[in-house]
Amino acid sequence: MLAIASAVLFFIAFLINAADLSTNSTFSSTNVMLLGLALLALHVAGIGSGWAVRGRRR
């Protein structure tokens, strides 16, 4: 789920950069891209990946 959210943020950052939109410093393409990278790092770390198998039950 976090990987999908990061892909959406990367696409928004690409649109801001490609269209050369003037936004405030909070929503600049670099900041949106960094948010996407943070979500991607959380996904790779295993946070928000869904169900986890904790061990064998008998």
Distance between the termini: 31 Å
How many E-type strands? 0
What's the tally of helices?
Answer: 2
Total number of distinct structural domains: 1
Mean pLDDT, to the nearest integer, reads: 80
**Quaternary structure of the protein:** single chain
Globally, the shape reads rod-shaped
Summarize the amount of helix as a percent range: 55-70%
Helix-and-strand structural type? mainly alpha
Low-confidence stretches: none
Order of helices and strands: HH
Strand content: under 5%
Gyration radius over CA: 16 Å
**Largest β-sheet summary:** none
Describe the structure.
Helix 1 (2-18) packs antiparallel against helix 2 (29-45). By secondary structure, the protein is an all-alpha fold. It starts with a helix and ends in a 13-residue tail after the last helix. 59% of the residues lie in helices and 0% in strands. The mean pLDDT is 80. The radius of gyration is 16 Å and the shape is rod-shaped. The protein has helices at 2-18, 29-45. It has one domain (2-45).
